[in-house]
Specification:
By secondary structure, this protein is of the alpha+beta class. The protein is 21% helix and 37% strand. A four-stranded antiparallel beta sheet has the order 1-2-6-3. Strands 4-5 form a two-stranded antiparallel ribbon.
Length: 90
């Protein structure tokens, strides 16, 4: 799966902001992407050295909009730890 659209974008939460100070960044990625594909894509796109990657699949949550009930979309999250001294400008 050599697809340039593996990385959809960064995840901006309070927890992800705190991790950026330690070289840990969070990205929303394609559900079918593997850790090795994510690693090579981040190294190629941002020009940094990746130490390790943790991935997780988020679950959908029930949401209401007036009288209509629905669910949020599921997606895959990659938590990327960079090598010492590396950083990404967000």
């Amino acid at each position: 799966m050599r697809n340039p659209d593996i990385i959809y974008g960064p995840v901006f939460t309070e927890k992800s902001y705190n991790g950026q100070q330690n070289g840990v960044y969070t990205f929303k990625v394609d559900k079918r992407a593997t850790k090795t594909q994510i690693k090579s894509e981040i190294e190629r796109h941002f020009g940094v050295k990746v130490d390790k990657i943790n991935t997780l699949n988020t679950k959908s949550k029930a949401r209401r909009m007036g009288r209509y009930a629905g669910k949020t979309k599921t997606y895959k999250k990659a938590i990327v730890t960079l090598a010492q001294g590396s950083s990404i400008e967000m």
